[in-house]
């Protein structure tokens, strides 16, 4: 998966507004921490405190979200459902190329944010740049489960 600072740099390069980038980074941190917790990975007290605050305050009161919540809420729900589908497949030991792709749902949210900010033409011309951010390879993903 892409590192947080690397992701932020790419979002800046896509010319998203600071407000949109800030909200996307909140969502990214939340997703990463929730996923770490679900997987039994270490979550520090600072990460937990940040997650709690972001979940109760930062996410829902953020100006970008408040302005676009009717568009963003169903997309965020879709991100969750794809993550859950992938997680279910992984826990059932039925991982494959399809469950691997479900893990990239966050990038769907970035595309939606780009569309909200810039419209169809810009998003059409640049959506491939977002999808190319997904740095995990299927072979590495599959290998995780071969040694688990």
What would the keywords be for this entry?
148 residues; 0% strand; mainly alpha; 7 helices
Write up this protein.
With 148 residues, the chain is an all-alpha fold. 81% of the residues lie in helices and 0% in strands. It starts with a helix and ends with a helix.
Terminal Cα span: 19 Å
The structure class reads mainly alpha
Number of separate helices? 7
Radius of gyration equals 16 Å
- Give the overall silhouette: globular
Assign a percent range to the helix content: over 70%
Strand segment tally: 0
| SSE succession | HHHHHHH
Question: TL;DR of this structure?
Answer:
By secondary structure, the protein is an all-alpha fold. The chain has helices at residues 4-13, 18-39, 45-61, 63-91, 97-102, 105-131, 138-146.
């Amino acid at each position: 998966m892409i590192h947080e600072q690397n992701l932020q740099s790419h979002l800046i390069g896509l010319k998203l507004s600071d407000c949109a980038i800030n909200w996307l980074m909140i969502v990214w941190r939340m997703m990463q921490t929730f996923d770490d917790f679900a997987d039994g990975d270490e979550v520090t007290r600072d990460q937990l405190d940040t997650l709690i605050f972001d979940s109760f305050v930062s996410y829902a009161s953020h100006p970008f979200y408040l302005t676009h919540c009717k568009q963003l809420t169903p997309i965020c729900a879709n991100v969750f459902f794809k993550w859950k589908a992938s997680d279910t497949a992984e826990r059932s030991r039925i991982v494959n190329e399809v469950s691997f792709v479900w893990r990239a749902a966050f990038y769907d949210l970035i595309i939606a944010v780009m569309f909200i900010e810039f419209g169809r033409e810009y998003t059409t011309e640049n959506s491939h740049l977002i999808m190319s951010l997904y740095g995990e390879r299927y072979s590495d993903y599959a290998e995780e489960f071969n040694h688990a």
